[in-house]
Amino acid sequence: QVQVVESGGGLVQPGGSLRLSCAASGGSIRFGAMGWYRQAPGKQRELVATITSGGRINYADSVKGRFTISRDNAKKTVYLQMNSLKPEDTAVYYCNTQIIPSMIVYWGQGTQVTVSS
Asked: Is the N-terminal amide bond of 87 cis, ω within 30° of 0?
């Protein structure tokens, strides 16, 4: 049974920072690429950042230079450091992970990030 659990969301003022964490579990299952996505009210879910098991990283243009994705393979955890937050970053942030070799993708339940003064 694979579980993906996000944490670290909350309310922050514009210009502030938050660090999201996402822990995957599932016994001896191997985890491939992991990523962060977000969905704002009335909008479609969009990619924020992804990282492969080998460390290859991809960012959405809207977060480049402000967000940093990283992972700890031993802990099966992926992080998203978010700096210089803007009101338009407000959304529910979701984590996903891809299982090797099935390539099935599992999603977490999401964590709310609100950027407001």
From this structure: no
